[in-house]
From TrEMBL:
Protein's name according to its UniProt entry: UDP-glucose 6-dehydrogenase
Native source organism of the sequence: Paenibacillus cellulosilyticus
Class of this enzyme: oxidoreductase
Binding positions (NAD(+)): 30, 35, 86, 121, 153, 261, 325
BP terms from Gene Ontology: polysaccharide biosynthetic process; UDP-glucuronate biosynthetic process
Signal peptide: none
Keyword Oxidoreductase appears in the UniProt entry: yes
Keywords linked to the UniProt accession: NAD, Oxidoreductase
Pathway of action: Nucleotide-sugar biosynthesis; UDP-alpha-D-glucuronate biosynthesis; UDP-alpha-D-glucuronate from UDP-alpha-D-glucose: step 1/1
Family affiliation: Belongs to the UDP-glucose/GDP-mannose dehydrogenase family.
């Protein structure tokens, strides 16, 4: 099939490449010239494991190209996929500016029957708005469909090629037929719904996962006070098939470009129909507070952070990505700096994104994990990159000025720690002094 993917970010680029890999002809479009130029030179603007290799193969095979010319890409395609950003507005609502702009551009370009698919996460009713915007611009026939995206950054290619399910929300038989054909090489588990339910499935799924995270984080906070170990509690809970094991890892809370904005957006969607989503509001509040446990724990050990040097391992909101949108590290580092600490930060791939966001005379970005901890008064681990777990704790102890480790992701085990003299605070597990 011939596809145009509008928006070449984390979702659009990965989806476009994977559809090309399945044998479709794909044009990935973005309005940011530099991105398209980079891709044209064989460079990849985001970090995602395996992406570069898959791009190279499909460009070479002539199935994948990149362009800034939306009209041309729409003209040459049967299916147009919207994968533009839907960031939060200051009140938490989804900002639909990019969706509406892209819809208007599609409407102006459309030359023949097309199926217009929204993959971006959008509030209920948005696909109807997209249809109305396109219809204002053209007399051509077209159908719309909501096909929400569930990929996770860091495992985006695997998730796209092996989805748990595909949701197709449409009222059009033709769109259903084409989209089933497009997705059937990926899975048999294709769920066809009305458009509004498809839009809601995405928000409900993310809100539910966020709820699991905040739930286990609150259990962790109680475990700390009653002397239980949350990792054992989560394991014991997770063996119950009704509960499941995933998303029960206690830590410093969720971040990233989806859960924070999508939970806020769903609270707003509910509010617009006079429904107060009390449970989800608490999930957000718990998550927001959880990251500050790192600061509270540091202060419990060091008293005053003024003049102290704190090493930070991990800036990305999770491992295997360079995405720092809403990463807990942002607020933790800002708070440390406000309290007068100096910060030495290291991340395997997210440093350049982070340094564009925060620059401060007391914040030094380091080229290695060893450089970050050298002569620091304490180390805070914020992202569970594999290379952090692999370090020898005895070696690490020798590098720090004081052997203080706040492990925000429960990376290290009691057994490993017992060989060292670390003062070790993790999440929902007994402290070690
Ligand atoms: P992103 O910011 O990485 O990419 C969006 C891209 O769209 C940008 O490159 C931007 O330049 C481009 N764009 C905006 N308007 C355009 C236009 N008119 N024409 C061409 N290009 C345009 O965003 P993302 O992380 O890929 O997310 C996209 C959507 O998918 C969002 O709604 C998000 O909630 C959803 N989503 C994201 C993830 C994820 O893990 N990132 C997962 C599932 C769903």
């Amino acid at each position: 099939m011939k596809l145009a993917v509008i928006g070449t970010g984390y979702v659009g680029l990965v989806s476009g490449v994977c559809f090309a890999h399945l044998g479709n002809e794909v044009i990935c479009v973005d309005k940011v010239n530099e991105k398209i130029e980079m891709l044209g030179r064989g460079e990849v603007p985001i970090y995602e494991p395996g992406l570069k290799e898959l791009i190279d193969t499909n460009v070479e095979a002539g199935r994948l190209r990149f362009s800034t010319d939306l009209a041309d890409a729409v003209n040459k395609s049967d299916i147009v996929i919207l994968a533009v950003g839907t960031p939060s507005l200051p009140n938490g609502e989804a900002n639909l500016t990019y969706i509406k702009q892209a819809a208007a551009e599609i409407g102006a370009a459309i030359n023949d029957y097309k199926v217009i698919v929204t993959k971006s996460t959008v509030p209920v009713g948005t696909n109807e708005k997209v249809a109305a915007i396109i219809a204002e611009q053209t007399n051509q026939r077209f159908d719309v469909a909501s096909v929400p995206e569930f990929l996770r950054e860091g495992s985006a290619i695997r998730d796209t090629l092996n989805p748990d399910r595909i949701v197709i929300g449409t009222t059009s038989e033709k769109a259903q037929e084409w989209l089933t054909q497009l997705h059937s090489p990926l899975t048999d588990n294709i769920l066809v719904t009305d458009i509004r339910s498809a839009e809601m499935i995405k928000y409900a799924s993310n809100a539910f996962l966020a709820t699991k995270i905040s739930f286990i984080n609150e259990i962790a906070n109680i475990c700390e006070k009653v002397g239980a170990d949350v990792t054992k509690v989560a394991e014991g809970m997770g063996h119950d098939n009704r509960i499941g094991r995933s998303f029960l890892k206690a830590g410093i809370g969720y971040g990233g470009s989806c859960f924070p904005k999508d939970t806020q957006a769903l609270i707003q969607i509910a509010g617009h129909v006079d429904y107060e989503f009390k449970l989800l509001k608490s999930v957000v509040e718990v998550n927001q507070d959880q990251r500050f446990n790192v600061i509270r724990k540091l202060e419990a050990i060091l008293d005053d952070l003024q003049g102290k040097t704190i090493a930070i391992w991990g800036l990305a909101f999770k491992p295997e990505t360079d995405d720092i949108r809403d990463a807990p590290a942002v607020e933790i580092i800002q708070t440390l700096l406000q309290r007068g600490a100096s910060v030495k930060a290291y991340d395997p791939v997210a440093t350049s994104n982070f340094s564009r966001l925060i620059s401060h005379p007391q914040l030094k970005y380091c080229d290695s994990k060893e450089e970050a901890v050298a002569n620091a008064d304490a180390l805070c681990l914020l992202t569970e990159w594999k290379e952090f777990a692999e370090i020898s704790l005895l070696e690490l102890e020798g590098l720090l000025r004081k052997p203080i480790l706040i492990d925000g992701r429960n990376v290290f085990s009691e057994e490993e720690l017992s060989q060292t003299s670390f003062i070790y605070y993790s999440v929902g597990r007994p402290n070690m002094n």
